[in-house]
Amino acid sequence: MRRGFLVTERIERPVHEVWAYLTDLSNASKWMTGVTESRVISGGQIGKGTRLVFRSRGARREVEVTEWQPVSIMSLTSTQGGVTTTYEYSVRPDGEGTVVKLEAVFQASGAWRIVHPLIVFIMKRSDNSHLTRLKRVMAEERP
Prior knowledge:
Blueprint: E1 2-11, H1 15-23, H2 28-31, E2 35-40, E3 51-56, E4 59-69, E5 73-80, E6 83-94, E7 97-108, H3 112-127, H4 130-140
Antiparallel strand pairs: 1-7, 2-3, 3-4, 4-5, 5-6, 6-7
């Protein structure tokens, strides 16, 4: 069973600046709801196959970069219990600004299928503001 949400936001910054900010883990706690820690645990620069750790809402989550197209797409996937979550962030130029899209997909298996709609509701309510927060933070930190 797959469910999720899709949000977009236009940010008044060039696409390369938005991409750099979006993919810099040191910025994650500024715009990702509840994130208090984010770091690479597999070494090297971020790219497809990179393993990351996020501490969010008191829980430690290991995440893998499952899609990576520089200055275009970054997908982050994690599995906990019977729930696999994928957050795909994409950027594209829009005039002098950038359109950022977040598509979140939640897949549940086994007994987790029963609570799957509730998980989707909670995550959507919590995380659909990521791009709004990203836009606000980037405007506040404007050089």
